[in-house]
Amino acid sequence: xxxxxxxxxxxxxxxxxxxxxxxxxxxxxxxxxxxxxxxxxxxxxxxxxxxxxxxxxxxxxxxxxxxxxxxxxxxxxxxxxxxxxxxxxxxxxxxxxxxxxxxxxxxxxxxxxxxxxxxxxxxxxxxxxxxxxxxxxxxxxxxxxxxxxxxxxxxxxxxxxxxxxxxxxxxxxxxxxxxxxxxxxxxxxxxxxxxxxxxxxxxxxxxxxxxxxxxxxxxxxxxxxxxxxxxxxxxxxxxxxxxxxxxxxxxxxxxxxxxxxxxxxxxxxxxxxxxxxxxxxxxxxxxxxxxxxxxxxxxxxxxxxxxxxxxxxxxxxxxxxxxxxxxxxxxxxxxxxxxxxxxxxxxxxxxxxxxxxxxxxxxxxxxxxxxxxxxxxxxxxxxxxxxxxxxxxxxxxxxxxxxxxxxxxxxxxxxxxxxxxx
Length: 422
Prior knowledge:
By secondary structure, this protein is α+β, with helices and mostly antiparallel strands. Helix content is about 25%, strand content about 25%.
């Protein structure tokens, strides 16, 4: 194999923000939908604005400082209403910025698969030290525990994720032949071999030893194969990465008492922290042709975890994780442990829960979404556990939650979207 993927996670880019004007009359009691529309992984969160980007009061996008080094904040949007609690807006902004910056810098380093950092045991270091006991940060250990509970094996597809990063960096379809298993029998066989190792606990297994200690067991056979093929990345959370990052930040902010806002990632993971009864809004998309249209708006309130799984590009950040071929075909990071190929049962699937965080939701939905066809029976079973889903099919919005609130049903070419709930 011998190819090394470039890691784009420290690449600077503007946040996708669109300004919309709205009257401030009774804004706290109205739908938090008004002044900014942030497209985040195919979902949109709209919210009221009062003194936007001011340290005085009102809604603001909290920015992370990069003075101490790169952070993962350029993949996130943290919206917060300053001055709504006991602290002054200025003090709250100062404390939030410091807390958010430190956490995003730590998470950037912990989940990095290509670069090592002094004094940090991250995914890169674990891959470089197989069969050794290492002590990791609690944030990473908790993510490993969640993966182990779910019996998920996709984190062991590290070598395949690295190849897909190269695929997403291709400039045109001609270059795909070195990375796309659908275009090359050799590549398909290579990914199939790597997937076989990933599925086999006798070949690779991250052993959790307690007190933050881990040991990545790798068999002699797999180590020999890895050396032969130039593999030095065994572990990668892939598309699950930002689910756990969003969860960690949400739990951290909640524990520190900062709950007047929401945190979202560009690739569709969102945690609402706000328990004040304000109404938030989430755009629901449907793929039509080669793009997506906003089919409706979901209104909700209260703390909630939301994931929006989508296999087609909606914004410029999606070139980190999606490649669209000239013929409309799609390549994504939703990789199957069966053969290392990307799969998605439907183009769009939104899931949410008041009890589960993004990591748990993603792990529970992975076998349903990363599949050839959608298992609607499993979606119904999950709804019984408080994990509801929404999908679009033939201009109909199907939702398992009978209490789902939908507004703004879209009229496309004279055909209006309808809803089928429960």
